[in-house]
Write a structure and sequence with these properties.
- With about 350 residues, this protein is of the alpha/beta class.
- The chain is about 25% helix and about 25% strand.
- The protein contains ten helices and 16 strands.
- Helix 7 (about 200-210) runs parallel beside helix 8 (about 230-245).
- The radius of gyration is 19 Å and the shape is globular.
Amino acid sequence: MIRRLTAAACAFLLIATAGCASSSGGDPPQTAGAAATELTLTFAGDVHFEGRVDKLLANPATAFGPVATELAKGDLTFVNLETPITSRGKPEPKRYLFRARDAAVPALKAAGIDAVSLANNHSLDYGRQGLADTMAAARKGGIGTVGAGKNATEAYKPWRRTVRGVRLAVFAFSQVDDLAAEWAAADGKAGLAMAFDTGRALAAVRAARADSDLVVVLPHWGTEGDRCPNRLQRDFADALVKAGADIIVGAHAHVLQGAGRSGDAYIAYGLGNFLWYSSGLFQPYSARAGVLRLTVRDRRVVSSAFVPTVVSGTGQPTVLTGWRAGLARDNFTDLRDCAGLGTVSSEQ
């Protein structure tokens, strides 16, 4: 269902159906013996507002374009925010530097996005000042953040929500080695949750498994331009599943990577460039992305739907239709083979 409801409508539906997502995480958890609740989670890939995409912020309400309708379907929506939101800070010593205006937050909100991953190789492009500004702007605008914090405890802490009695814990970890040591969160130092601190990352997931009904992880990983996951990705994914992760949806490669079942868990290794300033260096694959919608019951993905998109001339994602959509879905499904993943019982 489409969850963009007014507060009054939500209150009515709580009485009629027991069903709106809690913004405070205060809904009671599922009780033993209760009928299993189905949730629909929506994911998309890399988002920034650099270059030509900055022009879209002149009207934040329409920045994402018609694809916002797809993002708003379901209970919660997540993307990877590949930019700080700041006008301050010093540029870091790296080749590609991104930043976005404050209007990025209402643009994300208008598109139906609930939370963003900051555990990536651009969140500190303008240092810890830029990271602090990003988190403050998101918090003020009602967008959740995960994978970064003012210290290690905060960075490795999950973003939590309870939706119709189902308790979710969402993590994000970066596996990109560019400035990883300098950007890592530590005791008394702001930064990112790093996959390289495997012990801390897995311990956080195990702890959340003990008091959560559903554990989701958003890693930033992979080899740029490679449509098959590398060994580091696959090893970390296996470890996350053993620690208790139910759903893993990654980013960073700037191309689509395979998605499917790994035992009882679901892994999507990469969803590509979603709202992006160029079609990239790997034509035409880096322009291809999509919206992934997963329906979950009792920790298990029971159905998945992939809405294929392509980066348009404005940087907005354009939803493919007809035979182009069918071909794009087939290509996405074929990527499952080199990822070593299985099928979901119901796919679209």
